[in-house]
Amino acid sequence: MAVSESSIHKYELLDPDVRLMLQVRDDDAAAFEELVMRYQNRVIGILTHLTRKREQAEDLAQEVFLRVFRARKRYTPDAKFSTWLFTIANNVALNAKRTLARRREVNLGAGARDDDGPPALDQMALEASGLMPTRQLDKAERAQMVRLAIEALPERQRVALLLSKFENLSYVEIAETMEMTVQATKSLLSRARENLRAILEPYMRDGDSPMEAAGS
Amino acid sequence: MNDPNHQHDTTIDEELVAYLDGELDADAARRVAARLAEDAELRQKLEQHQRTWDLLDELPRTDVGEHFTQTTVEMVAVSVADQVDDASRRNSLRAKFGWLIGGGVAVAASLAGYALVASIVAAPNRQLVEDLRVIENLDAYRAVEDIEFLRALEREGLFALEVNDEL
Fold first, then answer.
1. Would the CATH topology of A1-117 be identical to that of A118-207?
2. Is residue A181 less than 8 Å (CB to CB) from chain B?
3. What is the pTM of this model?
């Protein structure tokens, strides 16, 4: 897609990270290090929620930054830097998931147990209810409950939700990152928020597990 | 399949979430606000959405520190260096094969050149062979000034006999 000069100029002016990336394009190693420092926690945070494994998330984050560096000469500032970066992160996570799925297919053929899939809602509820002997939740327990709720969301809903909440990306930016229309993004986020509300609201209201709430 | 009520609810849910996210234009935002003012159930849903959204802040923030930065930059540097090595290895192979290809081209060119020169050099000889009959009889031809007489001799088979003798 053709990108206008004015659009490129706009992102260059408004986004300091775009300017850093343009320095990286000119082989400035210090600028690259600065970008890694600025984004490493955010990229690992998102990837941890996507992969559910911190160690794997760190490996994938390194892969993301490697791709950024390798793509530097082709970089054109036609969006916010974070949008471009999280598009790469999303693609890396999807590739890793596909590789894992292929490996799992082979393993399942050999009778292996599926440990890497998303937790079933009932399993999630069981785990979370075990965290709540009383109706009062301390901070760590709330964090664990929220983590489990996010993990229970379908993957695309989870990605969109995380980009919206933690990266403050607009619907347009999320649409670009996830390669979908803005209307589809709006629907996806609505479903994500609705699912999250359905899972978490019973905890917040009564300290009930979602399954108890669903059965009542 | 297309339940109008379900469709209506979906639209309202989408508008409500977009309203919370500040993604509606002014007119749409006013419509949602008006609807909220008269619909207690929708207001409750909005509050629940807001609470669960705020609850996401409970998630611990990732902090990997400088060590990760350092290992990442080193990993990228090593990877790029490997890439450069691969590229120079490819260039070196290309250079070696380049000599071979160059040598091959040179030999082929030499052969072609030889053939060309040989053919050029051979051409006058070929012409001499073709004109041999004329050259051998040049003195006799010069003595005869009438071409019709020569043609008459040819018709009589005089030259053919000579050629057959030579062959």
1. no
2. no
3. 0.66
Separation in Å, CA of A110 to nearest CA in chain B: 35
pLDDT of res. A41: 95
Candidates B55, B9, B13; CA nearest to A199 is B55
B82-93: per-residue pLDDT in tens?
877 777 777 776
CB within 8 Å of A18: residues ≥ 6 apart:
A11, A12, A77, A80, A81
d(CA A143, nearest CA chain B) in Å: 5
- Dihedral sign for Cα atoms in the order A214, B3, B9, B13: positive
Q: In residues, how long is chain B?
A: 167
Calpha distance A56→A108 (Å, rounded)? 21
Largest CA distance in chain B: 135
* Domain containing residue B15: 4-58
For chains A and B, count residue pairs whose Cβ atoms are closer than 8 Å: 102
Domain A1-117 listed as CATH 3.40.50.720: no
Please give the ipTM for the structure prediction.
0.73
Question: What distance in Å separates the CA atoms of residue A17 and residue A151, rounded to the nearest whole number?
Answer: 30
How many domains, chain B? 2
Q: Is residue B103 part of a domain?
A: no
Helix, strand, or coil here: A78? Answer: coil
Q: Is B126 inside a domain boundary?
A: no
Residues of chain A with pLDDT under 70: 1-3, 106-137, 207-216
* d(CA B93, nearest CA chain A) in Å: 24
The Cα-based distances of A73 to A70, A77, A88 in angstroms read 7, 12, 15
Q: Which amino acid is at B125?
A: N
B56 contacts A44? CB cut-off 8 A:
no
The yes/no answer on whether domain A118-207 falls in CATH 3.20.20.70 is no
